[in-house]
Write a structure and sequence with these properties.
This protein is mostly helical. The chain has one domain. Helices cover 69% and strands 0% of the residues. It has 14 helices and no strands. Helix 3 runs antiparallel to helix 4.
Length: 328
């Protein structure tokens, strides 16, 4: 990552891989209950893919105190959230997912929590950025403490906002020299693969079937069946493990450009649009058919990759930009 261009390629590669994992995770979500391998794969993906995405988002938010940044954030994040919240409400009503047409702008549909939380994280920087690393420690403490509030949940994406904020703030605090270390460590790529493979094996052996809500961060400890004071220790351990896995992931991300690297610049399009295709398929296709394809791993990978290529295409960007970026 010697030059700015090389760093850009590195992060575009990282974002492309992560958006593929987002799509793939959502593709296998309804299938994981009948396949232990898919369940382990899903668990590993959800352990780190959004935290890594959030960390990278924080890394590129260093100009938050520049003139016009807040207005730009409203236009690029909050307004698309409001637009797609309305669209998803209509979509869920038409496909039968919701029995009534209800526009609730304060309780985000499915993947839209990320936009609402992302807007909140940018606002929180105005407070926490001044505190530097002490702010990070406070953010971690809040992320652990929020789980003790029983009624915290998806309303305004409050739970996820505070649970995942430490990753965003960490990304903001990291400097290029810190990320260079990840690639400069001797045998970093090998170490990265070993970390990811070991995580996969340990998750397959140790991770409980009812542990998925811990990875989603959208509810309290009590709602996940734990009311003990020690519940916070589990989340603090999760923070540590997730950071190790993120390090492993960043270590294997290539720094050279590839044909699909450009999709890393269009991840918002893939993120916002892939849900309509996946949810439509889940509505049309029977559960028996979904069960039949659950062990066709290569087909699931190719389908997920195809969705990323399709929705990350220049033409999709061109014709949906007015809706997503509010630009002609």
């Amino acid at each position: 990552m010697a030059s700015s261009t090389r760093r850009s390629l590195y992060f575009d590669n990282a974002k492309f891989i992560l958006i593929f994992l987002v799509v793939f995770g959502h593709v296998i979500s309804p299938l994981k209950g009948n396949d232990d391998f898919l369940f382990s794969l899903y668990s590993v993906i959800f352990l780190f893919h959004m935290p890594a995405f959030i960390l990278i988002s924080g890394y590129f938010s260093k100009g938050f105190n520049k003139k016009g940044y807040l207005l730009k954030t409203v236009k690029k994040i909050l307004l698309p959230y409001l637009i797609f919240q309305v669209i998803y409400s209509i979509f869920y009503y038409l496909n039968g997912h919701e029995s009534t047409l209800n526009f609730d702008l304060l309780k985000p549909h499915w993947t839209l929590w990320f936009l609402l939380s992302l807007f909140s994280w940018n606002l929180l920087l105005y407070i926490f950025a001044r505190l530097n690393w002490i702010g990070f420690i406070i953010a971690v403490a809040i992320g652990i403490g929020i789980g003790y509030i029983d009624n915290v949940g998806s309303y305004l994406s409050l739970s996820r906002t505070f649970v995942f904020f430490p990753y965003f703030l960490l990304g903001f605090l990291l400097e290029p020299k810190h990320l260079k270390i990840v690639k400069k460590v001797k045998y970093s790529t090998v170490i990265g693969f070993v970390i990811l493979l070991c995580t996969m094996l340990l998750v397959g052996i140790l991770f409980p079937k009812d542990g998925i809500p811990w990875l989603l961060g959208d509810t309290s400890y009590a709602n996940m069946g734990l009311k003990e004071l020690s519940s916070g220790l589990l989340r603090s351990s999760q923070y540590l493990v997730t950071l190790i896995v993120i390090f492993g992931f960043l270590a294997i991300v290539p720094t050279n450009g590839f044909k699909m690297t450009v999709i890393g610049q269009r991840t918002l399009y893939v993120y916002l649009l892939h849900g309509f295709i996946i949810k439509t398929i889940q509505t049309i296709v029977s559960d028996d058919v979904l069960d039949d394809v659950s062990d066709h791993y290569l087909m699931l990978i190719i389908f997920s990759l195809g969705l990323c290529i399709l929705l990350g295409n220049y033409l999709i960007q061109k014709y949906t930009r007015p809706l997503i970026e509010l630009r002609l």
